[in-house]
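User: Glutamyl-tRNA(Gln) amidotransferase subunit A. Structure?
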Amino acid sequence: MTDLTKLTIADARDGLKNKDYTSLELTDAFLGNIEKANDKLNAYVAVTADKARNMAKASDEKLGNGTGGALEGIPLGVKDLFATEGVHTQACSHILDGFKPTYESTVTANLWADGAVMLGKLNMDEFAMGSSNETSYYGNVINPWRKAGSNQELVPGGSSGGSASAVAAHLCMGATATDTGGSIRQPAAFTGTVGIKPTYGRCSRWGTVAFASSLDQAGPIAQTVRDSAILLKSMASVDPKDTTSVDLPVPDYEAAIGQSVKGLKIGIPAEYRMDGMPEEINTLWQKGIDWLKDAGAEIVDIAMPHTKYALPAYYIVAPAEASSNLARYDGVRYGLRVPGKDIVDMYENTRAEGFGDEVKRRILIGTYVLSAGYYDAYYLKAQKVRTLIKRDFDLAWENGVDAILTPATPSAAFGVADQDLHSDPVKMYLNDIFTVTVNMAGLPGIAVPAGLDNSGLPLGLQLIGKPFDEATLFQIGQVIEDAAGRFEPDNWWG
Ligand SMILES: NC(=O)C[C@H](N)C(=O)O
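Assistant: Predicted structure:
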């Protein structure tokens, strides 16, 4: 019998409708994989097996009487950042110990309304701060990929490392994720999966634990471009509960798949050719250019002169917003409370024990750049830089560019506990060099697997689109997927 967990969402959707198998069988197959693999990969921090089986049974009934939704019976994983009613939601932080929301996030509610089945909550960097999934209170996630002939454990990227690892290892068919500076696209690139960060305002942020509110955006991680299009269609909505939700209809993204890219203008920004970037990344980028050229797209050079300021500006804006958002964790309202001699002592004890080092570092940076005397020099300047970054993109669109092609990350997945990266946080932050510009400008960006490096690890290319033009990213992304092929890690985990 075929391994049901290897199916794409698109195929499973057809198989379920044809009654080739039931959602319960599909769900049990994934629960079986999780049981075998989670000890080794640490992708899930909570498995909701009973809930999953109940949801699957309800889906089977609907599939039986022809009332199923667009994702009826499809088992998914949920990043621990999304509020799920009555279920573990801790942003993988100690400070949210025991927190179970009384309500559901809009994004997950949309998925369940379309019939998807929840397998559990996925590991992530604490409060989505990180690029390696090593800041999680629940321990790091392991990338199912390894270098050829090596047993070294590699990181899956972050902060949605649990989502990416679970999709790559077939512990779910697709997963929700979020991206503030690259947290969907970088882990997707590190695990050979597809990740799209939609335009800011496309998915509701209601019920998603806030990190940096002007940058955070939800999106899917999936095995294929088509599956990402299917998931985003369900996740996205116009939501009066989120004032930044934009009132535009959600198109049928899947309809863009398979459409020709002939005549589309693809911009190549020279500023993304960084000094010291491994030659393999440049080679991969050139391959992508050639594939799109062969498919009839027009390749044009574009200038993005403010690119080099994006990373420092992001690491001012994001911590500033984080320091404000995280002020609410005081030991009174949610999760952990560490007693003290008075209330101030209790606040201090709770926050000292509840937050990990990276979160504390961001809170300190954030309060510093917002403090009197430094606000103008740092925060205000970073906001001005943000406008200039957005203008670089606006100019490209005004010149008729339909999408921009860049590498997704400056390297392939690196080793767990890499001393070089951990000794200097700025080196870790460099992982976001190609992705933060997109968040700063509020644009959509997709990472698509495009090849393997010399040691056999996946690498991704990124496509950046015009506001609310995710459809074009799926259209071009499919051409890259078709040209590159799909990539599977060797199953060493069980
Ligand atoms: N949240 C993200 O998008 C990840 C980014 N590396 C950060 O640590 O801010």
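The mean pLDDT is 97. DSSP finds 16 helices and eleven strands in the chain.
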